[in-house]
Design goal:
40% of the residues lie in helices and 19% in strands. It is built from 6 helices and 10 strands, in the order ααβαβββββαββαββα.
């Protein structure tokens, strides 16, 4: 939910805009369409905002994939919707040790950069500096990225710097790879 909603607006929202939900539901209602919403947000939030819609959900930048809910033909009510399970695109991830050594680095840069903050999800950590002084924050972001690369060593993680944020996530996880996985599943079902 960054392309549909600008991040600065996202942090102050309590719920997804009704017009976005309505438009997604309308598009997904056609059997000719398959809707996939990819987000960097955590799966609990994705479930809360979009979980009842007949769409594919991708959370934490591709780490988690969830198929549309199965709806009973007998009744199209909320009670008839079966809650689908989230699948991990990467199996056997245990990054607790690596992330425990990275978190203090994030917190250090958060403390020394006013108007920045660290977001910790299940498997992703992100330092946001959209609201910070641009010149100072850009220098800090480069330093943070370099420190994180050094501290993470050979851990199976990627450190990226873009869109006014520095992010650490499991290696090889992406929205594109998740979308490709979903398309493969859809093709397998149709075969």
């Amino acid at each position: 939910l960054g392309t549909l909603i600008d991040y600065s607006h996202f942090v102050s929202l309590e719920h997804l805009l009704p017009s976005v939900r309505r438009n997604l539901a309308e598009i997904a209602a056609s059997p000719q369409n398959t809707v996939i919403v990819c987000s960097g947000r955590e799966r609990a939030l994705m479930n809360e905002w979009l979980g009842d819609l007949p769409i594919w959900l991708v959370a934490e930048n591709g780490l988690f994939i969830r198929p549309p809910p199965a709806v009973s033909d007998a009744a199209m009510s909320a009670e008839a919707v079966a809650e689908p399970e989230w699948e991990m695109s990467k199996e056997d991830l245990d990054l607790a040790k690596e992330y425990s050594s990275l978190k203090p680095v994030f917190k250090y840069f958060e403390a020394r950069t006013p108007d920045s903050f660290t977001e910790v999800q299940e498997y992703t950590m992100t330092w946001h500096f959209q609201s910070a002084d641009e010149e100072f924050a850009e220098v800090q972001a480069g330093d943070l990225q370099a420190h994180l690369v050094k501290v993470s060593g050979h851990a199976p993680v990627e450190v990226s710097l873009d869109m006014k944020r520095v992010e650490v996530r499991p290696y090889g996880v992406s929205k594109g790879a998740a979308t490709a996985t979903i398309l493969e599943k859809i093709q397998a079902e149709e075969a």
